[in-house]
Design goal:
The protein contains five helices and no strands. The chain is mainly alpha-helical and 83 residues long. The protein has one domain: 434 Repressor (Amino-terminal Domain), CATH 1.10.260. α1 crosses α5. The mean pLDDT is 91.
Length: 83
Amino acid sequence: MTTTPTTTEPFCAALGRVIADRRLAAGLTRHQLAEQLGTTEERLASVEAGDMVGFFLPDMVDLARALGSDIVAIVREAEALTA
């Protein structure tokens, strides 16, 4: 049985925290990053809160690039937070 990820799942929450931290470290507002990604501030806020439903691998690759990183580094950082 497949479950839908929610904000209560530790990895999704950690991934959202990493994304938010990296956005802030890059000196970007949610508005600026959302605009670069072609999404809304609300959707980006949801992702930063750990809601990854509908946020697909190509989206994550684009997000990582916009933050000057790569998906592997972001995922590893999130994994370290949940270890």
